[in-house]
Amino acid sequence: MESAKVHHMTPEQPAFMAKVPNNKALMLDEKLLFEQSTKGRMGVDLPALKGTKSRTGLAERAKVGLPEVSEPQVVRHFVRLSQKNYSIDGGLFPLGSCTMKHNPRLNEKMARLPGFARIHPMQPDSTVQGALALMHDLSHWLTTLTGLPGITLTPAAGTHGELTGMMVIRKAHEAAGKPRKIVLVPDSAHGTNPATAVTCGYTTYPIPTNEKGHVDMAAFTKAVDELGEDIAAFMLTNPSTCGLFEPDIKNIADKLHSIGAWFYCDGANFNAIVGKVRPGDLGVDVMQFNLHKTFSTPHGGGGPGCGPVVVSQKLIPYLPVPRVEKKGNTYSVVTKDATSIGRIKGFNGQFGMMVRALTYMLSHGADGLQKVAEDAVINANYILAHLKDTYHVPFKSTCMHECLLTDKRQKETGVTTMDIAKSLIEHGYHPMTVYFPLVVQGAMLIEPTETETKETLDEFIATMKKIAWDAANGNADALHANPVSAPARRLDEVRAARQPVLRWQTA
Amino acid sequence: MRYLPQTAADRAAMLADIGVKTADDLYKDVPAGMLLTKPVNLPSHQGEYTVERTISALAAQNLHADGAPFFLGAGCYNHHIPSTVDYIIQRSEFLTAYTPYQPEIAQGTLMYLFEFQSYICNLTGMDVANASMYDGATSVAEAVLMAKRVTKRDNVTVVDGLHPQYLDVLKAYLTHSEGTITIGDKADDTTACVVVQTPNFYGEVVDLKPLRALCDKTGALLVVAINEIVSLGMLPAPKEADIVAGEAQSIGVPMSFGGPHLGFFACKEGYIRQMPGRLCGETLDADGKRGYVLTLSTREQHIRREKATSNICTNQGLCALAFTVHLSLLGEEGFKQLARLNHEAACDLADALAKVPGVKVLNKTFFNEFTVELPKNSADVVEALADIGIIGGLALDGNKLLVTATELTTPEHIAAFTAALKEVL
Question: CATH number for the B66-81+332-424 domain, one of 3.90.1150.10, 1.10.599.10, 3.50.50.60, 3.30.450.40?
């Protein structure tokens, strides 16, 4: 009985040190720059115009509609905005499946070297040998770590990598005679997976998750037997979005290969197994990386990412262009390839992120990357071990790099996952991922990453216990009202969607 | 290892609390024999200055725009970036934040996205803009996919002069949908959209009015692609368009060998619910204070899954911030002046090149780039120029060369270019 366990909880409030002082003197309101504009101000000094007669063939534009402000105003504006943001540099950011780990500043410095930042993608190959060598080296690291021999670096983000990978798969089926129709997708998958499959002209077929949080093998086997060669591929995230390693992964691969289908592994959670397991050994045919997750390029408030894709031998002919080739000691860019799916992005991909990722890999080395995975897994299990008696755990097992809890016990007093998340904000943390995976009601997916200290995890655990204690001890209303000390209170999302205001306009 | 805080004692204590002996015990679900017992065959970890030396040595092999007269553009432009831009985007709170899914502690990101969307609307003359796309090429491809959804038609007309890489990406994106792509300026009642780039790939400025009339007649949408956004400081806003999509790298974002850049996407109000990508909107918080959230996400993959308008998730957030900071510094007058400086530099370049024997400027109109005809194969000329340290533009088919000038182009650069051309031609 779950409810009985609530009463076993210690009646005393857990030892807990509040982190948020109720002092808002440094938290300043800030208007939009449009509202600060004064005609005649400018934040740049540009040379005088010569007055050359226009050769554009069209009338010159009179008004653009931009604010007029000085440089100090611009600096202050954006500094004040920045102070309204939570960041991994500022504190624990346990956002499950998003991998918010430390972003080393060395990586930023390297990406800004003029020899990388100030080169053009269409310069002659002879003038960018160092950049091409870097792409070649990064490719070597990624293929070695995965045991998959083919690679493209061009996809712009993880999702773009998924799209590329599925286009490669479709092209391979077409080359073999028929494109097939169906892509199997677990019901626990990221929304990008079904969206990607449909973009490639496939319909999706859901595979349920079993009571242990794994792929339901009976349902999978039945689907393969019934749909047979209509199945183009299975898109499976491993470790899964439930934070678990799929124990039947090798059998899944074998079964797919027996009907000529390809095994697409979503590599969003590769950080749990980097240096420990090579997806190629498991029978994976295609996997995308999210360099901003496993290899620590900064998320930047929503990008830029970078989503290289590795593939098994037989899929190499279909990879997109451009590709970097090495002959002797000379690198060149291949832009034409008759069997390729073509070009999926302008130029060479998110090169700046490649510089950061390779810098990160060289810093860690093969030995360090193995520790990255292990410590990420240890940290997540440590949190799970300390919270499993306080929060409901849907799948009774150790986890990989993220642990999954739910609000099932707290709901008895009306406190939901949303309240728990917003209360974490009140206590100075970024919340975990909430209500995902969709197959678990009231899901809370916690990913601490390897870069957090044990002390930080202990504080977080204490905070989670304090919130549970508040829920069980008559403080539910306070939890519903959280956050109260953040730069904003809960926002009215319904209003935002029903009366969309998507740009600034004068009244 | 400097990024890993856990000591041996920490690990031991934590493993004991978890109830296992070793880290490998936590990998119990990995199939037998698949767990690597030793590190893969790659170098071991290295200290900061060793890594810095290795990576810097690769950077040093490249000829970069600070070290060479530079006349290459073609969708990626060499502009000045004020110091303030990089200082702001490297602030921890922007650089190391996530997508603003928890708006109470992400108002900083959301407010600049709202300003970004407003700037893009004002620049393009459109009603709504999203919070960015990967790049110009993918943004134009997404615009075409949206036009197909809106019109429920299959065929696409592309006016000659779309960046060839944009066309390639469009073809790849449309591989798995019905319909044809026709190059030309014809449309009929099966045409979902007419795509036109201005200034076009060859630098020519396009009058959009005849294309608007064609779209009005046939019911096709007009998709305007722009890959040099600075041009909008001088050319009229492309209000004739239904969708304006393209590349905004020129403002605030370095060339970086082709990425990360900054795709933008704007359209007429009626199409909001068919748009791809994230949208930031204004609302109120529980105290009635103005605030911002990601909104209308029922279009997006994390809600709609297989019925989403696009599979896009992560976009180019930090590049959108760089753009917003830079454009704020420029402001109304600075942006227009920057555009005119670019145009004047291009006029100077055109005049100088026209005086080189055998060189002919082909454009009737241009903004900051144009095509010239050389008396020799242009690919050979570009290689020869590179050998003497000049990035001389983009070799097109045969003897044609696409050249670009920006505010960073000096009279000395132009003189060096023309002198070198006289030598190699």
Answer: 3.90.1150.10
